[in-house]
Amino acid sequence: MTLPLAILDIALSAAPWLLLGLAMAGLIKGLISEAQLTRWVGGRGLGSIARAAVIGAPLPLCSCGAIPTALALHRGGAERGPTTAFLIGTPGIGIDSLTITYALLGPFMAVARGVSAVLTAIVTGLLVGRTRAPVAPTPTSSCEGNCSSGCAGQGPSSKTPAALSRRLANGFHYAFTDILDDISLWLLAGLLVAGALIALVPPQQLAELGSGLGAMLLMAVIGIPMYLCATAATPIAAGLLLAGVSPGTVLVFLIAAPVTSLATLGVFRRELGSRALVAYLTGIMISAVALGLSVDALAGWWQLDISRQVEQVQELLLSWIEALALIVLVVLSVRPLRRHLFAVLSSPTSAQELP
After folding, report:
1. Considering only CA atoms, which of 302, 339, 319 is closest in space to residue 107?
2. Residue 268: partners with Cβ closer than 8 Å, 6 or more residues away
3. pTM of the model
């Protein structure tokens, strides 16, 4: 398979599921406010850490976008354990990345990724929760950072039909503008890398290096300092998997790459201290490798054919649906085309107000 065809094949497979994920992300954004998040992750101990990890998992925020929300939660009274679990669980997986994982990696890897993201967040939250803060956090109600993703779910909690309709409209607008703008370039880069892996790299070459403890540690070390959102990491993971890398090693990359970045590490150390940072990195590393080894063991025990699972998922949709979804995704990703589409769909007055 040539490089352009490999990239196009992956893009066609991912486009419908990515659009579905973005729509669900917009729904969550419109329905969940930051005040609700603060109430849900309050308290201390395993229960609050687990709640923070589970609640954060479906939210549509990348590593950079999760920082201001996590800081607001911590400075609003949340303990460092739940704050850490939220900071890891939120970018580790999301509705959008879960749907594209199902499309490109199959149901087994989608479930493994979702469960692993939550478990990594819980384990790391417990480790960080055992440390002590050197300096008390300064209360604030404002967002910090310059991510376009901003804070999750801000806005009034009014449940009137008009307010709910407005919040849902804002949520979908956020998903198909802010989130898509955040991930589009990274997603394109991921598709290019995945296509190159599938078309140009001999499977035997990666298969020899693609399993075992050493390969997983290497994936974790490479992934932790990267800034790669969960959705954009998925095409690269698909390329690695189809080129011969074991499912467990791919999972380590999917855990380590999205949950943190150099920006996250710097903010985390400033806010919670050096000991908490060491616990944070240790938790991510140990959890990712342990979960990767477990997934390889399960895949071998159950004799799973991951490639066949991916083919079965891709057979669910007709080719014209995939092509149409890809065209819509491209139009929405290119700002001038998006503005023109909104201008056609909206009245002339409201179209001028849209980005």
Report:
1. 302
2. 87, 276, 277, 280
3. 0.69
